[in-house]
């Protein structure tokens, strides 16, 4: 039977446990609570009893075991104090590292700007019986951490039927799962179904939409072989959907059927036309520009659209040569030399947040500017000195010819402003249209270039010009039946059988 002396000898173990539990619980909770204080007091009393009792026995401090135990106690207490301080600092000064590919757990620069520009409180209402989506909760908490004007609340529809009826009126009698409130304005956030998570892209776009007092109207010129807006080869459906999610009204426009540009047009976009415009169409665009309108021109090489009367007033000179990249940087993306990768951007609101990130422009042309009265031109997309504009793509061996070709660096895209009779008009010209087509739009910064250009040209109040949030990439591995059976056979049959055979051989040799 264990005697009193033996019990006293090991009494320091529960004392350390009690002290550790009290200190850690206090640091984690961040406040002094009766449980943590009680554990610390009990641990101190136990430790004091152990020290006094051991002093009662003669020669206690001279023993080797006592010295070893004291060293262990000091080391243990040091570790506890260090861990406690680390937990305390992390709670008071949280620091997060997001290692996911598309920074799924971090807010994009665009979202942070939107939150910084909030003039009124924003609140998200989630109608569900229990919030069991950790990714959605993480997104909302990130917004809340970045702005004191942002909050959210989870509502159980069964417990607050009055609130349910109030929000049903907003969505024509149907209760959506998520609503957004900005000041006194409320609107539903449209999700595909009740199971879809509220992503950063949808939430940020909804905040930008509800903030605007007026819906901006963007017209896409059609009738000259431009990229189709919905479906078809070379369509720009992704670009159109992104504009609509940001609160823009997108409308096709055929100027051959109309005498003038509609008066509600905030922006005219010409994207990838393949046939020359009629003179009256060019005249309508020129008049619209002179009256303070904004235009975005996405012009592919080796095509004459008859836009010289408009471009001359802005000091724009188009070059029919095709940009080639001799640096080989496109090899990492399996792209050829006719697809330049741009990493240099001008000092302009459209590109100011891009740093040295990549945007891609397959089969593009240079854009040159000449100094023109009352026009201010700023470079947007700048090629490097390894690129040149090639004049002869039919040659058997393509190389830079200083007598015919244009050496880099030069501009692939420019942004211009002009003041005429107190009317400020804007123009963005990019020597490529493929970068906004489906598939290319989501590559690197391509979509950001287009959307930021539209934001800047449409004259929105406090436009958010930055890098958008990215959707998670689908990294699922689709195995054929043969590959699936092969993996199953190797992992379940072959490897275990091989291990068993090796074990038998080893046993037999030792025997």
Automatic annotation (TrEMBL):
InterPro entries associated with the record: ABC_transp_unknown, Class_I_gatase-like, DUF7088, IFT52
The entry's keywords: Membrane, Transmembrane, Transmembrane helix
Coiled coil (residue ranges): none
Keyword Disulfide bond: no
Domain DUF7088: 101-184
The ABC-type uncharacterised transport system domain, residue ranges: 217-440
Positions of transmembrane segments: 7-28, 34-52, 73-95, 486-508
Protein name: ABC transporter
């Amino acid at each position: 039977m264990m005697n009193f002396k033996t019990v006293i000898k090991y009494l320091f173990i529960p004392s350390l446990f009690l002290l550790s539990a009290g200190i850690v619980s206090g640091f984690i909770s961040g406040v002094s609570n009766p449980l943590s204080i009680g554990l610390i007091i009990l641990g101190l009393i136990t430790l004091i009893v152990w020290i006094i009792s051991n002093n009662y026995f003669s020669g206690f401090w001279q023993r080797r075991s006592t010295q070893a135990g004291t060293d262990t106690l000091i080391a243990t207490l040091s570790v506890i104090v260090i861990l406690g301080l680390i937990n305390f600092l992390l709670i008071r000064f949280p620091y997060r590292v997001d290692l996911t590919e598309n920074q799924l757990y971090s807010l994009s620069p665009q979202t942070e700007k939107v939150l910084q520009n909030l003039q009124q409180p924003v609140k998200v209402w989630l109608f569900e019986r229990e919030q069991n989506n950790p990714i959605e909760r993480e997104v909302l908490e990130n917004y809340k951490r970045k702005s004191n004007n942002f909050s959210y609340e989870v509502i159980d529809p069964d417990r607050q039927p009055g609130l349910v009826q109030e929000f049903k009126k907003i969505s024509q009698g149907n209760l959506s799962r998520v609503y957004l409130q900005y000041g006194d304005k409320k609107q539903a956030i449209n999700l595909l179904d009740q199971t879809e998570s509220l992503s950063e892209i949808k939430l940020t776009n909804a905040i930008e939409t509800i903030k605007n007092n007026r819906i901006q109207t963007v017209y896409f010129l059609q009738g000259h072989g431009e990229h189709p807006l919905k479906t078809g080869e070379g369509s720009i459906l992704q670009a159109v959907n992104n504009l609509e999610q940001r609160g823009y009204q997108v409308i096709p426009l055929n100027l051959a059927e109309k005498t003038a540009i509609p008066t509600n047009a905030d922006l005219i976009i010409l994207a990838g036309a393949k046939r020359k415009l009629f003179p009256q169409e060019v005249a309508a665009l020129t008049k619209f520009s002179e009256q303070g309108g904004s235009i975005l021109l996405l012009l592919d090489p080796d095509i004459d659209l008859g836009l010289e009367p408009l471009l001359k007033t802005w000091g724009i000179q188009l070059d029919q040569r095709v940009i080639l990249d001799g640096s080989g940087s496109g090899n990492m993306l399996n792209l050829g030399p006719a697809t330049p990768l741009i990493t240099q951007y001008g000092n302009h609101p459209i590109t100011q947040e891009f740093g040295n990130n990549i945007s891609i422009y397959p089969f593009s042309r240079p854009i040159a500017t000449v100094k023109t009265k009352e026009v201010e031109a700023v470079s947007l997309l700048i090629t490097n000195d390894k690129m040149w504009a090639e004049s002869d793509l039919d040659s058997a061996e393509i190389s830079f010819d200083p007598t015919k070709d244009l050496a880099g660096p030069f501009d692939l895209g420019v942004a211009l402003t002009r003041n005429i009779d107190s009317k400020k008009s804007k123009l963005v010209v990019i020597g490529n249209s493929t970068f906004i087509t489906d598939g290319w739009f989501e590559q690197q910064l391509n979509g950001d270039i287009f959307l930021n250009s539209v934001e800047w040209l449409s004259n929105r109040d406090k436009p958010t010009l930055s890098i958008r949030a990215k959707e998670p990439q689908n990294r699922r591995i689709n195995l054929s039946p043969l590959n699936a059976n092969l993996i199953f056979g190797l992992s379940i049959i072959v490897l275990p059988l091989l291990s068993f055979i090796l074990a038998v051989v080893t046993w037999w040799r030792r025997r």
